[in-house]
């Protein structure tokens, strides 16, 4: 059963990816629909980042983790090097947890 499911999902994925270039010039989407699709993709990605960054399993990861994510986001927004972003986020979270903020 799992092998069959994997094969079906693989074939479906291939067909969807193959259909994109074939159907690209056959129809056009209205500008409003394109804007909604673009915005929905952004919102979905942001929700995925928020859930994976702010939760620990099935529960809230704590305010220290949220502060670390915020500091890391600000550092990335300021275009600091990736290593600096990670170090600042980790140091913020660790420092707050050391001070007793959960």
Kindly describe this structure.
With 102 residues, this protein is mainly α. The protein folds into two domains: 1-54, no CATH class; 62-102. It has four helices and two strands. It has a two-stranded antiparallel sheet. A hairpin with a 2-residue loop joins strand 1 and strand 2. Helix 3 (63-77) packs antiparallel against helix 4. The protein starts with a helix and ends with a helix. The model has no long low-confidence stretch (mean pLDDT 92).
List the helices and strands and how they pair.
Elements: H1 2-23, H2 31-54, E1 55-56, E2 59-60, H3 63-77, H4 82-98
Antiparallel strand pairs: 1-2
Helix pairs in contact: 3-4
Distance between the termini: 44 Å
Order of strands, widest sheet:
1-2
| Topology as a string of helices (H) and strands (E) | HHEEHH
Radius of gyration: 21 Å
Mean pLDDT across all amino acids? 92
Helix/strand-derived category reads mainly alpha
Q: What are the low-pLDDT stretches, counting only 5+ consecutive residues below 50? A: none
Beta-strand level of the residues, as a percent range?
under 5%
Global shape: elongated
What is the share of helical residues?
over 70%
The total beta strand count reads: 2
Instruction: Report the total helices.
Output: 4
Total domain modules? 2
Main beta-sheet strand count, sense and barrel state? 2 strands, antiparallel
């Amino acid at each position: 059963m799992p092998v069959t499911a994997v094969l079906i999902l693989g074939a479906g994925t291939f067909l969807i990816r193959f259909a994109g270039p074939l159907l690209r010039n056959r129809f056009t989407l209205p500008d409003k629909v394109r804007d909604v699709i673009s915005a929905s993709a952004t919102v979905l990605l942001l929700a995925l980042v928020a859930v994976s960054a702010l939760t620990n399993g099935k529960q809230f990861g704590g305010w220290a983790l949220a502060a670390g994510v915020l500091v890391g986001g600000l550092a990335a927004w300021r275009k600091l090097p990736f290593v600096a972003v990670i170090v600042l986020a980790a140091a913020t979270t660790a420092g707050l947890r050391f001070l007793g903020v959960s």
